[in-house]
Write a structure and sequence with these properties.
single chain; 377 residues; alpha/beta; 8-stranded mixed beta sheet; 6-stranded parallel beta sheet; 11 helices; globular
């Protein structure tokens, strides 16, 4: 068994049903609960939220009898295989460490942490407790993104050497999540983290990064536009761009578009989930739209399908004792990209992302972030 992984059978009993609880019953948690209800062999046996009205509404909608306003009490009272933490970032570390102290595996919503130090502490706590930890980094699980990843892995365009991952929209995300307009950080931390993670999934880890950010919408506090140039260890140069200030004739939310050039062809993920591959065999296009889930709502279908996929992956990992693809330790590298974007934009320098967190594993004192020559990015 890998460090930080456990088998669900260790607690699931003779029935083999994995017992979970969800902490945080807000806007996005409904997607979590719908997906859990669709999956076989798992049951959400308890809900927890400090807001009693929100807690009762969710419990009634999904038929969950056990309701708590105190996570510590819930973890004390219930025999759980995992908790699904769908709260805002400030509560993540205490809740993850609390679950680990009870020997309970954890899924945690993104952003995983507001600092790399907090993220590393959560990873360490779960590894010490020998419980699994996965970050709910769902964009890479969208059907169209998986199709792109599968095509690249199969070598359909040869060796990739250039890529672009783009998310541009003017969708009103603030009506459902008004707190997003209040923070000093916005698009990179909330949405850009998904797009950066897609770039890591498709092209591998990042050696150097340079970035610019801007605020176009005067009604919010944080940035709503970001452009990032990255040099990947595998030899790919990539551009990641994201915007909530782009008023397009066809609103694409929540679609991510992808372009990849390879040594033997090109791949494009166009609007409306059209994947085009051009190589020596010709040009072929297919639609990789998300399936029509009975609970899906427009325009969220792709994201809602990705929630179902990542939760299914979590169950598979628990049962097999495998480390999840988006484990807490893996997500340290994605979080480092987020921090590197902000630092690069502030300092107007190219950053080596791994220098922002590598000292945490060694236990050494923090050191100045490593800068790179602009030309190397």
């Amino acid at each position: 068994m890998e460090a930080g992984a456990m088998t669900a059978q260790a607690k699931g009993g003779k029935t083999g049903v994995v017992r979970g609880a969800l902490i945080g019953c807000g806007f996005f948690a409904r997607n979590h609960l719908n997906a859990w209800r669709d999956l076989d062999g798992v049951e959400i046996v308890a809900l927890c939220d400090a807001d009693v009205t929100r807690l009762n509404d969710a419990a009634q909608a999904f038929g969950v009898a056990k309701r708590y306003t105190d996570a510590a009490q819930m973890l004390k009272d219930e025999a759980l295989d995992f908790v699904d933490i769908a709260t805002t970032v400030a509560s993540h570390r205490p809740l993850v460490e609390l679950a680990a102290s009870h020997g309970v595996s954890v899924i945690c919503q993104k952003p995983f942490a507001s600092t790399l130090e907090d993220a590393h502490a959560m990873v360490a706590a779960c590894e010490r407790a020998n419980v699994a930890l996965m970050v709910h980094e769902n964009f890479r699980w969208q059907s169209a993104i998986r199709a792109v990843g599968d095509a690249l892995s199969a070598g359909e365009i040869g060796r990739p050497f250039w890529g672009r991952v783009s998310f541009r929209s003017a969708f009103d995300v603030f009506s459902g999540q008004p707190y997003l307009a209040q923070g000093r950080r916005f698009i990179v931390e909330d949405l850009g983290i998904h797009v950066l993670d897609i770039a890591r999934y498709l092209f591998g880890d990042v050696d150097t990064l340079s970035a610019t950010i801007a605020r176009v919408n005067p009604s919010i506090n944080g940035e709503d536009v970001a452009t990032v140039l990255m040099s990947h260890t595998a030899g790919v140069s990539s551009v990641v761009d994201c915007s909530y200030a782009s008023r397009l004739p066809h609103e694409l939310f929540p679609q991510t578009l992808v372009e990849v050039d390879g040594s033997e062809g090109t791949l494009r993920l166009f609007a409306d989930y059209r994947v085009q591959i051009h190589n020596a065999l010709g040009t072929h296009e297919r639609v990789c739209a998300p399936p029509a889930l009975h609970w899906a709502q427009s325009p969220w279908e792709a994201i809602q399908d990705s929630v179902l996929r990542i939760e299914s992956h979590w169950l598979d990992c628990l049962r097999a004792g495998r480390e999840p693809a988006t484990s807490g330790r893996d997500n340290l590298k994605t979080l480092a990209l987020v921090e590197a974007v902000y630092l690069s934009a502030k300092e107007r320098k190219t950053i080596v992302p791994d220098s922002l967190w590598s000292h945490l594993d060694s236990g050494s004192a923090p050191h100045a972030p490593q800068m790179a020559d602009r030309a190397s990015a």
